[in-house]
Amino acid sequence: MKSLVYVISGVLLAALGLTAPAAAADTPTEVMPANVLEAFTQFTGSPAPQTKIVTVQGQPGFDKALQVTVTGQPSSPGLDGEYSLGVGVPSALPTVKNEAMLATFWARSVTPTPSGSGLAHFVFEQNGGSHSKSTQAAMKFGTAWQRFQLPFRMAADYATGQVRINFWLGYGPQVLQIAGVSVLRYGPGTPAGWPQATYAGRDAGASWRAAAADRIERNRKGNLYVKVVDSEGHLVPGATVQADMTKHAFEFGSAADGIRLMTQNSASQKYRDTLLANFNQFTLGNNLKWNHWENLPERNTYTLPALQWGRDNGLFVRGHTLIWPSCGNMPADVCGLRGDPAALRSRIDAHITEEAAALVGKIDEWDVANEPYANHDVQDVLGDGEIDRWFRLTRQADPGPKLYLNDYDIIEDNGWEVRHQDHFTTRIRALKDGGAPIGGIGIQGHFAGEQLTPPADLVTLINRFGGHGLPVAITEFDVGTTDEQLQADYTRDFLTTMFSMPQVTGVSTFGFWEGDTWDPKRALFRTDWTPKPNAVAWRDLIYGKWWTKASATTGPTGSATVRGFLGDYTVKVTAGGVTKEVAVSMPAISGKAITIVVG
User: Fold this and answer.
1) At what angle do helices 484-500 and 533-540 cross, to 10 degrees?
2) Cis peptide before 47, with omega less than 30 degrees from 0?
3) Residues 6+ apart with CB under 8 A from 231
4) What pLDDT score was predicted for residue 550?
5) DSSP state string for 283-302
6) Which fold does the domain 10-197 belong to in CATH?
7) How far apart are CA 228 and CA 551, in angstroms?
8) Which of 370, 378, 388 has its CA nearest to residue 438?
9) N or C: more exposed end of the chain, with fewer CB within 10 A?
10) pLDDT of residue 18
11) Where are the beta strands (DSSP E) in 117-250?
12) How far is the C-alpha of 100 from the C-alpha of 261, rounded, in Å?
């Protein structure tokens, strides 16, 4: 096959998730070996991938490629199967924490995986130890050469050879070629010439915006029909009707910490006030997880009061999570029972039944099982069908809440996590086909700034998973980048896309304050509580563009119509110097008709 020659234009850079450098920079330093293709000598798997150097013609910047032949199968159907096969190369120079870096490589498929595409996963990680990752990216590619370029910052200081490139290859047999491999060290700060990450569809005139606006108009608004009569039932023309929104029907939420919520000091008061001012839904990020739930002082002093506080303040409550089925995320004794399947099942059944029953009436939605793709120690013993059992046990203990299967990397990473998506689809179908009481699909949404899924592709992905006939909740949205304008723009565009999709019932972040969240750079508010640009974007949409404050005057029939976003309203009617105020809920696009008596 004849190779294609690419001229990297501004349009192509945007498609690849990059913007052109603003100015020339000092020459960055290459940290990988000079003959990097020959240095790929770290192999994982049995049988290990086979490599050879091949000649390439017609490509700018390289004339050789590393051809990798994968014949082995992944060791498991989960995440660990992805990295059970791989090839790697250690760095040739040291790197420095937080410095600007740029990884570049090209890839093409010679013989695709069983999915029909070339698949791999690029990782720049600690070479051994905890394998801490500075950047990673899903790869999906065809037979034409495709360039991947990832601006990132180092997670830690590493001496020569202590960090490496690793390509995960646990996606089934395939033959692929890799070329133009480079990792450049640009230095501290934001050096001139360091490419900035972006995403397709970021520009103000992007075509997806008009379609999203149309869907929002059709799917998120209704007509409030107000008829005004006097005390004798006569129609009242000329009355003033004011409709002020008080709460969205769509769930805009965040994870929060029960201990911080229930601590009585000025900092916790600010935490509570900020939560109530910016969200109508909350999730206890950790307090309902199994380890925390069995901590009785924490449960009684903080967790249960925090749930009641949420109820008292009119918040929609998500429960996270009844089981996170890996040894590191359950009490220590649980995995000690793996040699006795009956005892393991009994311990899990008792926990799910006890926690779900204890919280009857306090939870609106439960993440019954969390991340079964990456966390499958229990399923390895009891089988994947056990997930069905967990849903049934939860429903038996509490008939009220919607029950969700929750997982990550479903819409992230350009939407290229094919193996993970397919696993999620299989689990959802198995639950539905088996009659399990699954009521919704939880999609997390932890995005990396260097690989943001374009809004147009998000639509395709939501349509795919919404096609199961179940509501979709975005349960853990955030954007990991130090580029705060990129973070704000993607927050705006992600919210717009999700709000436009009728299958989606809500978007929840996984923490809002730098002082108490899993990754401070992803937060909406700084440690001093000043809003970051992404918080401004959040509020501008939810409490600005999508917040209805409207007025009308009744006509000869005593009626007026106000079109507004779905949710709760205070409606004030004034006629003849008399004002009447009523609370109204308009939860559906069919609208709401009310009659108000004045006088």
Assistant:
1) 20
2) yes
3) 597, 599
4) 97
5) EETTTTSHHHHT-HHHIIII
6) Jelly Rolls (2.60.120)
7) 14
8) 388
9) N
10) 52
11) 118-126, 133-141, 146-153, 163-168, 174-187, 196-197, 221-229, 240-248
12) 37
The alpha carbon of residue 271 and the mean position of all alpha carbons in its chain are separated, in whole angstroms, by 23
Q: Report the pLDDT value the prediction gives residue 24, as an integer from 0 to 100.
A: 42
Radius of gyration of the chain from its Cα atoms, rounded to whole angstroms: 27
Q: Report the distance separating Cα 451 and Cα 140, nearest Å.
A: 12
Structure tokens at 423: 């696993």
Which is it for strands 240-248 and 549-553: parallel, antiparallel or unpaired? antiparallel
pLDDT single digits (tens) 383-413 = 999 999 999 999 999 999 999 999 999 999 9
Cβ contact 313:375 at 8 Å: no
Q: Output the CA–CA distances (angstroms, integers) from residue 33 to 129, 223, 360, in the order listed.
A: 22, 65, 60
Assigned CATH class of 211-218+250-407+456-545: alpha beta
Tokens of 37: 């293709």
Query: Any bridge partners for residue 477, and if so which?
Result: 509
- At 468-510, the pLDDT tens digits run 999 999 999 999 999 999 999 999 999 999 999 999 999 999 9
Q: What long-range pairs does 381-384 form, CB within 8 A, spacing at least 24?
A: 381/338, 381/341, 381/344, 382/341, 382/344, 382/345, 384/427, 384/430
Per-residue model confidence as pLDDT tens digits over 6-55? 233 333 344 445 544 443 447 999 999 999 999 999 999 999 999 999 99
* CA distances to 190, 307, 464, 501, 528 from 213, in Å: 35, 35, 20, 10, 35
> 50: which strand partners?
69
Joined together, the tokens standing for residue 180 give 């133009």
- What residue segments make up the domains of the chain, in order of their start? 10-197, 211-218+250-407+456-545, 219-229+548-597
* Tokens of residue 303, six digits: 């967790």
- The total of other beta-carbon atoms located within 10 Å of residue 79's CB is 23
Nearest to 524 by CA among 546, 492, 554: 492
Please state, in angstroms and as integers, the Cα–Cα distance from residue 409 to each residue in 94, 148, 176, 219, following that order.
31, 19, 23, 26
Map tokens 């996984």 to a residue: 510
The answer to whether 235 touches 228, Cβ cutoff 8 Å, is yes
Residue type at 315 in one-letter notation: L
- DSSP H or E segment with residue 352: helix 341-358
Type of residue found at 507: V
Tokens of 512: 């809002």
What's the token pair of residue 212?
């999203």
In whole angstroms, give the CA distance from residue 358 to residue 507.
26
Query: In whole angstroms, how far apart are CA 557 and each of 227, 563, 577, 579?
Result: 8, 18, 20, 19
Q: Which amino acid is at 204?
A: A
Percentage of residues of the chain with pLDDT beyond 90: 95
The sheet carrying 592-597 orders its strands as: 559-565, 221-229, 592-597
